[in-house]
Amino acid sequence: MSVTVRPMTPADFDAVVAITRAIYPASPPWSHAQLASHIEVFPEGQLVAEIDGEVVGMAASLIVLWDDYSLDTNWRDFTDHGMFTNHDPARGRTLYGAEVMVHREVQGQGIGKHLYTERRALVERLGLLRVRAGARLSGYHRVAGKMLPEEYTKRVVTGELSDPTLSFQIKQGFHVIGVARDYLRNDPESLGNAAVIEWLNAAVATPADYAARDKWDVG
Ligand SMILES: CC(C)(COP(=O)(O)OP(=O)(O)OC[C@H]1O[C@@H](n2cnc3c(N)ncnc32)[C@H](O)[C@@H]1OP(=O)(O)O)[C@@H](O)C(=O)NCCC(=O)NCCS
What we know:
- By secondary structure, the protein is an alpha+beta fold.
- The protein contains seven helices and seven strands.
- Bound molecules: coenzyme A (COA).
- The site of coenzyme A (COA) has 20 residues, from β4, α4, β5 and α6.
């Protein structure tokens, strides 16, 4: 199986919408207006993965100045309601991962990994400090009555539990730096909760950046 990752074009919008509908049946899918806005404000940040000419995954990102936000900012505010019109390459040093998804039928075959390899390469090319994102805790609903999202996240970080999304992100080199409740609306899997995750660009990160990242207590 040969996977190609390339910039998104308008010809990909229908396929991306179809994947979104299948993965998030309880949420409104990406709209063409949102996807067109992403391409307009930051074309390099919008990626699709394809196999034999068929779009099977995507990753969408924008650049933010982190100081304009906080660890518990929700997805809507990080993405300006999904339009990315808050993209701020003049001031920002953080690539914000707003979405990554792979068609259900081909999950677990390395496609998400390809998308993240390209995302990290983009950060290195642009000389940005890091990638940050909210990793929705998609397995949290299974234990919600038994533990808080913070406890769940710690157990996933230590490997005691596995989460379909966060365990993948950890394999991609991400560290957890916080937990955001109310990050998402309409997500019956995470119940709105996300781990705030970070990957630092070793070419520009300082010891202070690593120290700040490692402050989150996985105790
Ligand atoms: C999360 C997602 C993008 C991963 O994409 P994928 O193509 O299935 O992942 P890959 O096959 O590239 O897996 C990469 C690595 O993560 C691991 N991984 C993937 N899913 C995992 C899971 N559910 N549990 C544990 N590890 C997992 C793989 O084993 C692989 O490890 P390796 O590098 O040692 O081989 C995909 O499952 C998805 O679309 N999920 C639904 C949408 C979603 O929740 N997106 C995140 C929004 S925050």
